[in-house]
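Q: Hi! Curious about what 5'-nucleotidase looks like structurally. Here's the sequence.
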Amino acid sequence: MSRLDAQLAFLAEADRLKSVLRATSLHDCSRRENSAEHSWHVMLHALVLSEHAARPVDVSRVMTMLLLHDLVEIDAGDAPIHGDHDPARQEALEQAAAERIFGLLPEDQRAEMRAIWEEFEAAETDDAIFAKSIDRVQPVLSNLASDGGTWPEYNVTPEQLETRVGSKVTRGAPAIWTGLRSRIDAWFDGR
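A: Let's find out. The predicted structure is below.
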């Protein structure tokens, strides 16, 4: 297979991300978003909100991480943060998916993209910590815009949001979480 053939095969496979539905609905509540839409939207969030990162970040690297981060859902599916799933099993599925999907690329691109995906997953560098934070912010904003969105469906509590989302956002973008906290509190107080 030529280099171009491998690249085109990878891009064709990536198109399948458009068919992976997420728990989060669109702001207008008309339907659930797909994982490709989520990837685009979190990249836009990173571009707009990068000035709020706890530490300086390379927004281009952050956007690359966010572009690639959910490709594994083509095989592993979406595991909603407030859903009931086995994290160890999900991680194993995602690792296998990363091996297969990035494995479609020529070796140099395979290694580079897989390393960026692994960096995002580990969330140890400033870029990855911020990327993880932004990945958590976007669904919160969608749920707030859609009158709680799927929070009632998943019986989400303020404590769960703080533990599962707030702690991650605070690590990479504390000012954003502080700004969201009053909106979240107002939504839960209005229930």
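A: A fun detail: The chain has one domain: 3-190.
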